Amino acid sequence: MTARNETSLSLDAGGTETLIEVRNASVTFDMDRGRSKVMDDVTMDIHREEILGIVGESGSGKSMFASALMDAVVDPGVLTGDVIYHPPDGDSFSVLDLDDEELKEFRWEEISMVFQGAMDSFNPTMSIGGHFEETLRAHDYNVADGMDHGRQLLADLYLDPDRVLDSYPHELSGGMQQRALIALSLLLKPNVLVMDEPTAALDLLMQRSITSLLANLHEEYGITMIFITHDLPLVADLADRLAVMYAFEFIEVGPCYDILKDAAHPYTRALLKAVPNLSSALEEMEPIEGDSPDPVDVPSGCSYHVRCPLADEQCRSTDPGFERVSDGHEAACFYWEDAREEITYTLSDREQEVTFDERR
Amino acid sequence: MSVDKDPVVTLEDVEVQFTNKSLIQTLRREKDVVRAVDGVSLDIHENEVIVLVGESGCGKTTLGKTAVGLQRPTGGSVKYRGQDVWDAKDGNGDVTVPFTDIRRSLQIIHQDPGSSLNPNRTILNSLSVPLKRWYPDMGVDEREDRIHRLLEYVGMKPASSYASRYPHQLSGGEQQRVALGRALLMNPDVILADEAVSALDVSLRIEMMDLMHDLQREFNTSYLFISHDLANAYYFAEKVGGRIGIMYLGKLVEIGAAEEIIRNPRHPYTKILRWATPVMDPDAAREAATEPPMRKIDIPDPKNPPSGCRFHTRCPKAREACTEEVPRLLPADGNGRSEVACFRSESDHAYWNSEPLPE
């Protein structure tokens, strides 16, 4: 949200280039119980070559944001607003104006997406190598060159390329399938990789191995990554920036370091106290009171006011806009300064470093 | 935690093997044997919390099910208050505690609460089943009253409204509360909680674990809690002075007081799990290593586990000695707050003079 000005300028004051601009995007579903707004007037910039972590509870609208980026909101959902893509070479265009053929190209060659549960993304009757070749052919790429790149990607993800390409999906463990899927999604050298809970259903050791390999891939290929998860700690040391979603909109955006160090929105602060981790003191950890809101019946004013200890009349009646906290750090709260004083948390790792002492 | 009293459940040198014989394998006289649990001994005391941590396929669920009498071990013994569980089941020897009492005293809650509740039954009906079975003389009013009180215990108020709902009308957290309530109906001594919070949104996990702790005080239960996540394990165990046990390919490789395991891990595998636990301190995170610290990131095939120390194929500190001998679980030096199965904890072991394994 660093560039909220509505000009077409894709460079903001900090010199970071904007790759994707999301402007006033909303997604609505008509349901029996009424109209359900699962994304509410979201404006967001995605910077070139950053790793953006999008965090929120299940049902907060984060997956819908990912779908909106690629104009992939499923019927009967209706997407309004605009998504503007600024390719590194070439003219900017609106993603929502693309026709089917252009969209297909856009979705693999510019933005690629990885969902959780690789098993559902692979065809069980086709070998992993078959998936790679089919993808290259469908997009008229040179298969031999493409497979070389594919092998390299598999090796980057600590997989044995020959073994994996010859295997059928069921012959690989969950962690291997998910890594093979990430390699496949990077095969056509997209500029952006969007991952929606890419490591859910894997155990922690595999999750962390994958995030550390993603950091390496980011370093090596300069891909812009968007990592969507409910598991805040997972992206804490991966992301450059964090965007926190609550009730179908972003409520805080900023450099990951700044948010972890001293978050501004009361929800983010409560969330940091509520996720089990080894950096917080046990006595500080506590759940967030109350339930997350119903999409058909979002509270008026600030949607967090029903759960917020700082809420007053203004919060109940007026929806707060983004307020500037520091450079590139914004929070949608009238009282973020008070929140920092009244909701306290400490994150400190006394002995994080994994050391293997030699002989005692 | 009362260590002086007799344990509620005693596992001694427990071994669980699964054999998979398909028709073709039978014709070829082949057999696939997986040693899911291999020589594990563990005592669960009254009012104790033990968390088993490990990757998928390390045998933690099998060990848990064996501890609560749902899985028959292929070797070793499982005793409930001194009575061998499977002797009680088979009627061997003098049975001092009948199997039905044992079954009732050892309960389980699953990872996916939705699938453990019958979708066609209201919560009241689902919870009535075990009461009807174990207390056939209980009247309808008494039964309902007990269920309502229990739902209130697990924080589902108004109980009568929740009792009349179907599982799909509840959130994941609420379903897990019902599952917990159902386990508690029997006033059990031990509850096996298999990844009971893993399916919940991270922001709901502490609430669920706090509730389980409250109920432990109320009902005097012990928990055997299974998790792949060290952060959850630490919260659940340390908050009530419990223990954490680390499993790798069927073996217990380190066990001890939660604080000791987290702050002073000794087994290289425990250290790697510690690495895998995300760092939230932004200053520490900047320095965190990006490269996975183990030799291989994938777990070996459990059908064909490595020789010697099973972790040697991934261990960054493995030497030749590790491929030959199986390390025993021994008290770690110092305060006796943990036990570890690694030659690196034995200062006079041949390990120190053997060659490091090639990359």
TrEMBL record, chain A:
Bilayer topology term: Peripheral membrane protein
Protein name per UniProt: ABC transporter ATP-binding protein
SUPFAM superfamilies linked to this entry: P-loop containing nucleoside triphosphate hydrolases
Entry GO terms, CC: plasma membrane
Main location: membrane
Protein localization: Cell membrane
PANTHER family in alphabetical order: ATPASE AAA-TYPE CORE DOMAIN-CONTAINING PROTEIN (PTHR43297:SF14), OLIGOPEPTIDE TRANSPORT ATP-BINDING PROTEIN APPD (PTHR43297)
CDD domains: ABC_NikE_OppD_transporters (cd03257)
Ranges of residues in domain ABC transporter: 22-272
Stored Pfam families: ABC_tran, oligo_HPY
Organism: Saliphagus infecundisoli
Keywords, ordered alphabetically: ATP-binding, Cell inner membrane, Cell membrane, Membrane, Nucleotide-binding, Translocase, Transport
Spans traversing the lipid bilayer: none
A molecular function (GO) term: ATP binding
Lineage of the species this protein comes from: Archaea, Methanobacteriati, Methanobacteriota, Stenosarchaea group, Halobacteria
TrEMBL record, chain B:
GO biological process: transmembrane transport
Residue span(s) of domain ABC transporter: 9-274
Protein keywords: ATP-binding, Nucleotide-binding, Transport
Molecular function GO labels: ATP binding
Spans annotated as Disordered: 288-310
Superkingdom of origin organism: Archaea
Gene3D superfamilies: P-loop containing nucleotide triphosphate hydrolases
One Pfam family linked to the record: oligo_HPY
InterPro entries per the UniProt record, alphabetical: AAA+_ATPase, ABC_transp_ATP-bind, ABC_transporter-like_ATP-bd, ABC_transporter-like_CS, Oligopep_ABC_C, P-loop_NTPase
Biased composition (Basic and acidic residues): 288-301
NCBIfam families attached to this UniProt entry: oligo_HPY (TIGR01727)
Record-stated family: Belongs to the ABC transporter superfamily.
Protein name: Oligopeptide/dipeptide ABC transporter ATP-binding protein
Species this chain originates from: Saliphagus infecundisoli
